[in-house]
Task: inverse folding
């Protein structure tokens, strides 16, 4: 190699060229093998071709750098030496067999290629037979090799080989591979070779070096196979890392009863308990454990079968756990009584186990609190905070929608909100709708879960359900809801009113019938860990909550205030909606004010409840936001009703009444309500609404202040895009607040701020900050307008986009840092330029998404606000962001 | 004045302290008086208190700077001296009377206050009687003074005085002021004084200096009266300019038959003809000319009555026009045979006159071509390019909507597009709809004009009508359209199918009946001026055109290419829509491709027509943009239809058929179609659409290329927000184009670019420019998403916003430079950072708005593209922008 660059790293004889920290260059497996070798762990010798070679391989048009083949021969020599010179690659007398395996920085299990038993050919097979004295073993090894090499390297379909095996078994009238004799296997090898020639028009390679080079290039090539690409996309693994190739002396667990192979964990990966966990098979190869043909034994049984080996294994794995300071997932083989470790890596675990292990390891003095916190993936907590479907239950999944709000629920199907309220008094119900609107809130409240045919991850159903902490499967486009016939169909399955279904909002599954669900326990370890989380993080976490019940839940989950109270949700209660409608249908200010006067005491009492629950913590109240027609009957339903009344010649007076209502609904009808007369545009055109809401807020605060309770309400003006919009509303609020305080004879502090949820607001944030005393980024709406995506409609193409890699992630779930994030950053910078101490938060759905929380921390936000159920996730994500900034620990393993 | 600052400027005796260039400081009137005085024009002497004093007046809390009153006394002395010492302010024997007038930099006619005849009191009236020997004149002057001062300075309602005059006339049984005797007028003065005391609780001030100071402060105060504020807002006049106060010796045109007063123009302001134009009254004061009680005479008659004066007036005004190098609008008074000029200013003129005057003055050598171009306000051209309502016609306006597309049209009312097509074969029709959709295109095409009850300036109806160059009144919310009853109502007026109406799309008026319209001539001067425009401007102007007919019109109006061809408009033809629907309703790719194959030859032939018309000029073709459901029947109408069929027990098969259609419509239904599955999102999910459209474009170009015609189509991908969206479509386009060219055996050049119409696209323009070969800013959509305003729905509040000064201008008409403009600028800068020669244009409606065109020029765009009818406006605006940058000439007078 002219460049002098080191492309190959050796390991063996207790010493390796590399170390465990060189995952970038050697991949996880290669680094692990080097580290184990250096630590004196018995590892079959071998060498690793670096990930750099993989990248060069692609740069050079699928060719390795010149000279690499020669260098491999040198290293093969070292390997032979490490084995004491007893075996030689390609030697017909004492053949050395090797494995060729991929291994990238992050584990991508099963995604890339592996070839075992490489080095066998028509000559070396004889040596293997001689050396082992086990003809059947040798022929089995050869046929496995041809099969694997043929498939992986030469691209022959697996079926082609399986078919031949099947034929031979049929002929011999046996059912298991193990029943085939050495003769049979030898015949199989011949037939396989014929098949290879037939499919590829070439002979199966007999030159072991040709075998090795072909296998190496196949492994490099597998880095970019479609399933590896998909896996990387789903797991956020960059495509430019490349894979290393590990070439290692084969050891055999299938050389008789003193041989075995197994896998294990140093702690229980499901519960986190500190117990030796795993399984093994005697006289078997690794793939047999996975294939499930024979049932493996629990690893503790090895103590009885091979006590010496067991003890050595426990010692080694204990040492490895101590060494790596984390749970190890390991593979081993015992060849004729000798233990070899083939792999060790950080063990994947459930959220439950992750917490227990992290807390235990701190107690054991193995890791610090900071490391413990980093060991828990924030998003995984979601599993812990909601009921799940009993994993042991047998279920029939009939459809799959979007996992819109986690948790599982069973109940009888209902199709209207009113029916939901009625039936829920007797038994649990699932509300099924084409889509939900604010009209359905009372039904959603009554139901155990919600299923919709339309709408995305941030559709009305999804947002409200998450707010309520209720399971929801949204945008389940394969179900056809027929409201009139009170049924829904999926293909040939029909589900009628009153039938049982179960939904799993964590996976999007819709299941026929009643399925047992279980509430996973949140152990005391959870509380311990969260207390460390709160010691570490510096960014605040608030919750979005509209009613005292939600506020209490938010407190339970550790929220430090309310970042968003959507006052319109107070308008939907059964007894209030008619008054709200009266207000909307008023055709003059006087009548509107009369209706508002009736709503005032109701809102005031809601605010009092909210303020009392959150005493000592800030409460941000957003003024009325949605377009008014959301509170009225649907236009198309009225149109249908009236047409039918005409067709059926209903009394004229009743038709006229409906028509009058339709007229007003038509007046308010909008083609794109998301971009219509809503947000502060309402409070500007109808100042009496802002006045009433301000009165309710300030009166509630004054009344509590008189009782000695300190409340600082933060009044938030929605959908501001023009400085004068905020000026107008702020003037109105200040004037009203002064009047109320004058009348109540008590002064309370309050702030007036705004949502930044339109691109224009971010662009002119310096101007807006002249008026705003705080900012809260409404990243749902900001995502909608920045992308021009309606959250209700984007389901039609966003799925296609993420599947086809046009978008990495659904931007309604994870904040789009490149576009929307650029506006958030611009908003923060410009806002603070005007008002250096400006309090800035986020109250979109992203407030509960870990990657977005990290972005918020980096961007200097004071707090994030999210659904009560996601508060713990946001807290831990905020702690991770802080630690990442401080440079503590690595990231959680992928 | 301690500061030594000069606050007062004198004019008189042929010499003035100021000059005509000092409009900022002296206001237009003051500067004009100074300039005229310096030029030897006979002007009554006086002095001007500067606009700086006005600003100080507000800074000091409505007080003038100390010492000003004393300084005014000095200047009054100078004025008396200039009058030869014959008159003295407040002198009971030879009283000097003065006028007190406002005058700001820009003329604001009638908006601020004026007081005449100031200096009269119970003593000086006697001197005036003695001096003039005309008791009636003197008492009339005194009562006019009390009336004016009482109203303007003391705030007494005009009615209060009028009522007293009315009473006295009733008592004397006369009907005209002129019939009142000196005695009557004297009695009136007494009654007026009593009224003043009664209303204001103080006597009418007798001290002439108190009168003067009060009047001065009232004039300063009138700068900020509501109507002045509104006028400034409407005319883009800054609020911080302030007004000057002009105090000038009174001259009287009502001192007998050798006295007269008049107004005039140096050229005809209506036609532009070089003729002396104006009117006068003998024995009258200026206000009498305006009041219309006596009919004034044409100014040329003055030649007969007072030939000496007439000659002097012609000489003076000719000199003024030469001096100012523009048409003058002047006021004069003849007092007992002596001519005084009271004012001269730039004369306002019609667009027609403006062009003629500008061209004539170049021919006369008075101004340069550049100046001539600057003399024509771009927006005013709109008047010239469309038919208008005959100004002499008597009309009954029944409603007023938005002036959505200029021009007037009369015709019979129809309520459906089909009816429009049917009836239009016999006679002109006006299509009246609640709102239009693409379904209505054929009806809009057949109608003479369009009237809608809903939708803003950029609603579908407005945009399409402007594109077609057809009159449209949109968002006329007071009309209630009843499609079923085939009528519309406005208050108590009902208009039925077949009734005649006239709409004026230039003003938004809806008129009952058939009103004559006239096509204003576009004179040869227009062509001359536009040729100078094209010599000056450097930015290109293209047109938005979808069909060869529009393209021909665009060429006629001077477009240098097509900046936007909306291919979907080709889908709406009667014979094509069913095929488009077949394509949409296809539930698999095969069926969709079959339908597309039928559309291919149709689109190809359209493109050929377009390319042939625009030969030598670029044509930008936008791929399919609107959501597919726009091509299908409306959801709510189908729902009604089906419900009625059920109610009437229609045959099951026909119901099922409709229901199936509804199902597909429901599938495609979107809550916010503007943010839905449209633009490139269609071509990505249904690549066969992009393939078909690319084939049609490239095949057309290839076929023409074979005939030796060079076409460089610019294929534009709409609604890109993510780089990979453009990559995806570009790959598809390139591949398809290569295939076509291969097959056709000919190579054509083509470009692939994108619309920048989403905030995210502007933010990541550097990334997008890696793929895009050109950018075109779609500022309609960009305005929608930046503000979060739906152009279809914003009518509900945008009117309120502009009226209440929350927004200065409708951002759909004039580009919002602060917000949307910031994104455009970002897009241009980032795009050119990646690709320095990136061709950038704009194809939103703003391309035809002068202020927006100037912004586009400043921002470095290569071209603007607009409706064919606005091309001349854009051309002249582009020339203005260029001249402004070069610092040539001032702006057009306000």
Result:
């Amino acid at each position: 190699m002219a460049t002098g660059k080191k492309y190959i790293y050796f390991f063996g004889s207790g010493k390796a060229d590399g170390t465990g920290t060189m995952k970038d260059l050697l991949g996880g497996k290669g680094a692990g093998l080097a580290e184990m070798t250096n630590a004196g762990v018995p590892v079959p010798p071998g060498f690793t071709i670096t990930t750099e070679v993989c990248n060069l391989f692609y740069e050079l048009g699928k060719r390795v750098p010149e000279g690499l083949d020669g260098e491999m021969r040198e290293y093969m020599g070292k390997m032979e030496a490490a084995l004491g010179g007893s075996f030689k690659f390609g030697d017909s007398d004492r053949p050395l067999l090797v494995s060729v395996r991929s291994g990238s920085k992050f584990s991508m299990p099963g995604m890339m290629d592996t070839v075992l038993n490489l080095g066998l050919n028509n000559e070396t097979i004889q040596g293997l037979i001689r050396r082992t004295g086990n003809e059947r073993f040798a022929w089995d090894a050869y046929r496995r090799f041809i099969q694997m090499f043929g498939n992986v390297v030469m691209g022959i379909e697996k079926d082609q080989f399986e078919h031949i095996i099947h034929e031979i078994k049929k002929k011999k009238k046996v059912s298991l591979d193990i029943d085939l004799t050495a003769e049979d296997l030898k015949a199989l090898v011949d037939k396989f070779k014929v098949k290879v020639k037939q499919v590829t028009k070439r002979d199966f390679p007999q030159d072991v070096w040709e075998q090795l080079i072909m296998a190496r290039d196949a492994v490099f090539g597998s880095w970019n196979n479609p399933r590896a690409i998909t896996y990387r996309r789903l797991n956020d693994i960059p495509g430019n890392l490349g894979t290393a190739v590990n070439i290692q002396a084969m050891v055999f667990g299938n050389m008789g009863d003193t041989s075995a192979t197994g896998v294990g964990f140093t702690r229980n990966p499901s519960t986190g308990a500190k117990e030796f966990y795993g399984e093994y098979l005697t006289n078997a190869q690794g793939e047999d454990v996975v294939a499930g043909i024979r049932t493996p034994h629990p690893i503790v049984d090895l103590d009885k079968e091979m006590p010496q080996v067991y003890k050595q294994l426990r010692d080694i794995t204990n040492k490895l756990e101590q060494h790596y300071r984390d749970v190890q997932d390991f593979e081993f083989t015992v060849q004729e009584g000798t233990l070899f470790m083939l792999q060790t890596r950080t063990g994947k675990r459930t959220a439950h186990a992750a917490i227990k292990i992290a807390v235990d390891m701190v107690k054991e003095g193995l890791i610090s609190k900071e490391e413990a916190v980093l060991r828990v993936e924030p998003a995984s907590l979601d599993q812990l905070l909601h009921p799940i479907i009993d994993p042991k239950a047998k279920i029939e999944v009939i459809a799959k929608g979007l996992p819109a709000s986690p948790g599982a629920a069973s109940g009888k199907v209902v199709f209207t909100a009113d029916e939901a309220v009625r039936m829920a008094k007797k038994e649990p119900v699932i509300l099924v709708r084409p889509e939900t609107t604010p009209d359905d809130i009372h039904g959603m409240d009554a139901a155990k879960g919600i299923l919709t045919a339309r709408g995305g991850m941030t559709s009305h159903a999804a947002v409200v359900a998450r707010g309520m902490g209720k399971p929801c499967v949204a945008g389940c486009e394969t179900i056809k809801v027929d409201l009139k016939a009170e049924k829904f169909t999926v293909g040939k399955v029909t589900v009628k009113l009153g039938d049982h279904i179960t939904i799993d909002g964590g996976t999007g599954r819709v299941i026929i019938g009643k399925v047992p669900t279980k509430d996973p326990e949140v152990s005391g370890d959870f509380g311990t860990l969260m207390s460390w989380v709160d010691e570490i993080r510096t960014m605040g976490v608030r919750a979005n909550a509209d009613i005292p019940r939600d506020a209490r839940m938010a407190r339970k989950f550790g929220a430090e205030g309310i970042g968003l109270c959507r006052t319109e949700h107070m308008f939907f209660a059964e007894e209030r909606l008619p008054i709200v409608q009266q207000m909307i249908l008023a055709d003059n200010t006087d009548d509107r004010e009369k209706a508002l006067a009736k709503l005032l005491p109701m809102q005031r009492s809601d605010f009092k409840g909210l303020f009392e629950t959150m005493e000592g913590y800030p409460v941000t109240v957003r003024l009325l936001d949605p377009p008014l027609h959301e509170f009225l009957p649907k236009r198309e339903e009225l149109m249908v009703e009236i047409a039918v009344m005409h067709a059926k010649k209903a009394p004229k007076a009743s038709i006229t009444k409906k028509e009058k209502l339709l007229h007003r609904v038509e007046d308010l009808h909008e083609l794109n309500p998301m971009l219509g007369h809503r947000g502060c545009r309402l409070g500007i055109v109808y100042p009496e609404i802002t006045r009433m809401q301000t009165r309710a807020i300030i009166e509630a605060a004054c009344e509590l202040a008189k009782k000695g309770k300190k409340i600082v309400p933060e009044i938030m003006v929605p959908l501001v895009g023009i400085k004068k919009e905020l000026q107008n509303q702020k003037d109105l609020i200040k004037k009203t607040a002064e009047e109320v305080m004058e009348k109540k004879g008590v002064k309370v502090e309050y702030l007036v701020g705004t949502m930044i949820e339109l691109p224009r607001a971010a662009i002119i944030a310096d101007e807006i900050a002249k008026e705003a005393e705080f900012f809260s980024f409404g990243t749902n709406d900001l995502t909608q307008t920045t992308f021009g995506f309606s959250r209700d409609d984007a389901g039609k193409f966003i799925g296609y986009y993420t599947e086809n890699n046009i978008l990495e992630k659904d931007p309604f779930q994870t904040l789009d840092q490149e576009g929307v994030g650029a506006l958030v950053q611009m908003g923060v910078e410009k806002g603070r330029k005007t008002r250096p101490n400006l309090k800035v938060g986020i109250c979109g759905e992203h407030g509960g998404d870990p990657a977005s929380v990290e972005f918020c921390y980096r961007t200097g936000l004071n707090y994030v606000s999210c659904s009560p159920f996601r508060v713990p996730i946001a807290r831990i994500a905020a702690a991770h962001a802080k630690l990442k900034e401080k440079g503590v620990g690595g990231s959680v393993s992928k």
Summary: Residues 589-613 of chain B form the longest helix (25 residues).
